[in-house]
Design a protein that fits this description.
five-stranded antiparallel β-sheet
């Protein structure tokens, strides 16, 4: 390592900047993005499960180099050697490594904010379609692409930024990692609760058309829960969005009943097989095009509809019901063995809320988003970090605009709450992540002694009104419990 004066510096310039050359004594593994995107040595869907190894490496790096020594490129991974953290120690003007100061702490030093930001940037950069520009860019992508990123990555990144981590990264992230890996030891049971309201600023004085949201659920003899929320979209307030939403729900209920009949007739359910490349547990299908009114290969007595076939059926039903109305949609299925899936079109959202085995004094819940946003802003953000506006302009919806839809499979465990909601019920607060709102609200309701699931549905609708009542707000909460004997 050597220090040389900058070539651009004058003899007595006001600023003197040394040039520091760093030589690594061992070979560096590829950056995390290169490992995931180019070398494919770590599958993006396995990223969250592999993170405990990274946290231990980060703690070791900070113990040796001190806090403030991480950059995005510090996070590296090799298929054979695993995680590597290339820390950049602090240097003095002589080019020597500055010794750790007394205030840096002992074993497992707490990371500084720049260390946390570097970790978040590296994680998002590894799974995004384009390189991540900065922290703001990373957080925006986490919000709108949550359903296409590995499940729980948004919760991991938010905990990195919001938790004190005084005892090291591995210790601070351990409760969340355990929650993300949790599985139901046996079967599960489910109960659904729904609340919906017009919104005072949305109301026009016609109860028949003011609320264009609709929702429904069905649990058949097979024990499979199927539920959905549809958010009607009307351009001129004529109520056609409500017509679209109700038509979609009616078609969904017909499909659910056909699926139950197929199960009762011992027909093999086709969605036990992958619906496309990489569509196993915990995966997300690539967005696909579905022509308006495209015929479904399913019919009465047929196996369960695949996601694309289901979206095509709903789109055709909306087209038959209205020429002007449309709807965003999110549908979920929860099976008695704990496997679950969501299908979404538009800006309706699905979230999973899970109890944390956290130390006393911490909020005992976490939440992560299961669905992406199909909006003009999301489409622009895929291309550029400078995307602005168009947050509510849909680019995919039922009623002639189903060019993009998302499908995610995951697992639930007893104690979970699965939330399906229209965008009115997930109204963001300034500088506050909605997952943190969900976790805190759930903890408060749980501590109050009220039934948590129905109370959460009601609280989200009340919150929407308290934030201004600008839109219809519908929340459907599924409580997951242990299997009933």
């Amino acid at each position: 390592m050597s220090v040389e004066p900058s070539a651009d510096a004058t003899e007595y310039g006001a600023v003197a900047l040394p040039e520091i050359r760093v030589e690594w004594p061992q070979a560096l593994a590829p950056t995390l993005r290169d490992s995931v995107v180019d070398a494919h040595s770590l599958d993006r869907e396995d990223l969250v499960a592999a993170l405990p190894g990274l946290w231990r490496a980060v703690d070791a790096a900070l113990d040796l180099a001190g806090p403030g020594s991480l950059v995005v490129e510090s996070v590296r991974h090799d298929a054979y050697e695993g995680w590597q953290v290339a820390a950049l120690p602090r240097y003095d003007l002589g080019g020597r490594v500055r010794p750790r100061e007394r205030g840096d702490g002992t074993q497992h030093a707490a990371p500084q904010l720049r260390d946390r930001r570097a970790l978040v940037g590296a994680l998002v950069d590894a799974v995004a379609e384009r390189p991540c520009l900065d922290l703001r860019d990373a957080l925006q992508m986490l919000d709108v692409f949550a359903g296409t990123f590995p499940p729980g990555l948004d919760a991991v990144c938010r905990r990195l930024l919001g938790h004190e981590l005084r005892h090291g990264v591995a210790a601070g992230l351990a409760p969340l990692q355990e929650a993300l890996d949790r599985r139901a030891p046996g079967g599960v049971s489910t109960l659904c609760f729904r609340e919906s309201a017009v919104g005072s600023r949305k109301a026009k004085g016609d109860p028949a058309t003011d609320n264009e949201d609709t929702a429904g659920a069905l649990t058949g003899p097979s024990g499979v829960l199927r539920c959905a929320v549809f958010d009607g979209v009307t351009g001129d307030g004529d109520g056609s969005g409500g017509t679209a939403a109700r038509a979609a729900l009616e078609q969904a209920v017909r499909r659910w009943r056909l699926e139950e009949a197929a199960v009762a007739g011992d027909a093999p359910p086709s969605d036990h097989h992958p619906a496309g490349p990489g569509a196993g547990p915990g995966s997300v299908d690539a967005p696909r095009s579905v022509p308006r009114g495209a015929p479904s290969s399913t019919g009465p007595g047929s196996p369960v509809a695949r996601p694309g076939e289901l979206v095509a059926e709903l789109d055709a039903a909306v087209g038959r019901a209205t020429a002007t109305g449309s709807a965003a949609a999110v549908l979920a299925t929860v099976r008695p063995d704990g496997t679950a899936s969501v299908v979404s079109v538009g800006d309706t959202e699905a979230w999973l809320i899970r109890p944390l085995r956290a130390p006393a004094g911490e909020i005992p819940y976490t939440a992560w988003r299961l669905t992406p946003a199909h909006t003009g802003f999301a489409e622009r953000l895929r291309v550029t970090a400078d995307a602005e506006g168009e947050e509510s302009q849909l680019v995919s919806f039922l009623g002639g605009g189903t060019a993009r839809w998302a499908h995610r499979t995951f697992r639930v465990a007893p104690g979970d709450l699965l939330l399906l909601a229209s965008d009115g019920a997930t109204e963001p607060e300034r500088d506050r992540w909605f997952g943190a709102v969900l976790a805190e609200l759930t903890a408060q309701l749980d501590a109050s002694g009220r039934p948590t699931a129905p109370a959460l549905a009601a609280a989200l609708v009340q919150r929407a009104e308290a934030l201004g009542g600008w839109d219809n707000a519908t929340a459907l909460v599924c409580a997951v419990g242990e299997a009933k004997d």
